[in-house]
Protein: General secretion pathway protein K
Organism: Simplicispira metamorpha
Amino acid sequence: MKWPCFVGSGPQRGIALIAVLWIVSALSVIVTGVVHSVRSEVRLVSVARQSTEAAALGEAAIMLVLQDMAASGNRPAHLTKVEVSYQGQPMVVEVMPMTGLIDINRAPVALLASLYGVAGGIDAKSAQTLAEATVQVRSERDARGREVGFEAEQDLLRVPGVGYDLYARLSRLVTAQAQGSGRVNPQAAPEGVLRVLAGGDAVRATALAAARDKNPADLDSTVLNGEFLDNASSPRYRLQARVALADNGQVVVEHSVDLRPDFRLGLPWRIFHAEHWMQAPPAKGV
């Protein structure tokens, strides 16, 4: 039996060949796209797995430090770093009394103005206006006549004139939960807050932080604005663990904790805020 031949002659063969080549090319593009998509998904799954594992390690490190603080009764009055190892992973947990941050619920106008001017990078007149607006917003009263205040740091965005860019520059330096006098304990303050207390002198703030890390007694607070200082302690702490990733990035785990026992739940402490995020590896050459 002879099969019919559908291949034409001359130009028809050329057209058919071009069509076949286009089909092959299109299939090649599709296959390449699928392979790239699969590889991207594999990388995303791998990153997600690493992030989850790192967050769990950071949680464990913080719990170990909290357990030791509860068992020993140790209440650091200054910012301190504790080395922890869990499942063979070395980590550092930073323990910071929340009195080392600027309390947006209780800080005086002058301290808020310094915060906006130094850390926020805005001019003195605008900083003073924002400071006064902050006090006005936190002093608003509800239907029962109670001051509403700020429940979280993000509530600063309620203040007219505070946008996301400004808030991002302030967010690591403030708290709404310190429950102190509204002034700052320089022994517990991170470098960014020390810079605010030093009137924007970054060199002095760096030197003060370095001296304190070596020996807390070496912190010379006389060079800071005394009106903003208070050495009172607090049962509230912010604990932060950093877990290294394979690409030199980090997962940062952070808990805000009140070390007073929670008798209602039968716990030795109360965690009132927890979060974690990924920090990208430093750029090459930096």
